[in-house]
Amino acid sequence: MSTPSDNLFPTDHLLRSRAEREVLLRQRAVVVWLCGLSGSGKTTLANALDRRLAAAGFASAVLDGDNVRNGLNRGLGFSDDDRRENIRRVAEVSRLFVQSGLIVINSFITPRHELRDLAREIIGAGDLLEVHVEASFETCARRDPKGLYAKAGAGGVASFTGRDSAFEPPTRSDLVLHTERESPTESLERLWALVHPRVVRA
Fold first, then answer.
1. Is 127 helix (H, G, I), strand (E, B) or coil?
2. Which CATH architecture has domain 25-199?
3. Checking phi first, is residue 76 left (phi over 0); if not, alpha (psi -120 to 50) or beta?
4. Distance between CA 128 and CA 35 in Å, rounded?
5. Which of 87, 60, 58 is CA-nearest to residue 72?
6. Side-chain half-sphere of 58: how many Cα atoms within 13 Å?
7. What is the rounded distance in angstroms from the CA atom of residue 87 to the CA atom of residue 90?
8. Residue 70: what pLDDT?
9. Among candidates 27, 5, 2, 76, which has minimal Cα distance to 196?
């Protein structure tokens, strides 16, 4: 004899596959990974893309250095090992989000080829769009939206990317946004032109 609890979780409500979730959400999942120097415009573009996707009816999430290091990666520093672990965890979380059918927008400096390759390996090359948000160290230092360049100049930031720690320009990016000579609107339009066809279900 069955009991009431036997029917709490009928088989038609079992966890759905990624394909089924994408059908429900009416989108194709992908990770858009924005890399570049601090101050290059990554987070501004990530948030703008997130808003535009939402306005068009898509479900997306933004991960960046601030929200991740305040929680998931609290306690990690900026040594080579800690940077690698930071990116590894972000990539693993991104992969889980993609399997749930979501569009993930990541904004991380990701300074070395090795780190970008690690993210690609974990997420899968077919689910990753790499975007280099390019601006010179000098331009980023002039912008300095978080005051990090001033703090680094005073010796308050160890292993600061672009000064104490090298940034290796990507060679496999799907798109390069030149925020020194493009307006934010122009950069967003180019980013949208890359992402929108990728997330629309046929």
1. helix
2. 3-Layer(aba) Sandwich (3.40)
3. beta
4. 12
5. 87
6. 26
7. 5
8. 77
9. 27
pLDDT tens digits for 150-171?
565 555 555 556 454 688 999 9
- Over residues 58-84, the mean pLDDT reads 84
Tell me what percent of the chain is helix, strand and coil, each rounded to the nearest 5: 50, 15, 40
| pLDDT at residue 167, as a whole number | 86
- Average pLDDT of the segment spanning 103-114: 96
Distances (CA, A) of 169 to 17, 68, 109, 114, 132: 36, 23, 11, 12, 8
Please return the burial class of 43, using the count of CB atoms within 10 Å of its CB with bins 0-12, 13-18 and 19+: buried
User: Within 10 A of 93 (CB to CB), how many other CB atoms are there?
Assistant: 18
106 forms beta bridges with 33, 63
Model confidence at 105, pLDDT cuts 50, 70, 90, reads very high
Query: Domain limits of the chain?
Result: 25-199
pLDDT of residue 178: 97
Element (H, E) at 31: strand 30-35
With a CB cutoff of 8 Å and minimum separation 6, the contacts of 65 are 107, 108, 109
Least confident of 27-31, 72-76, 103-107, 112-116: 72-76
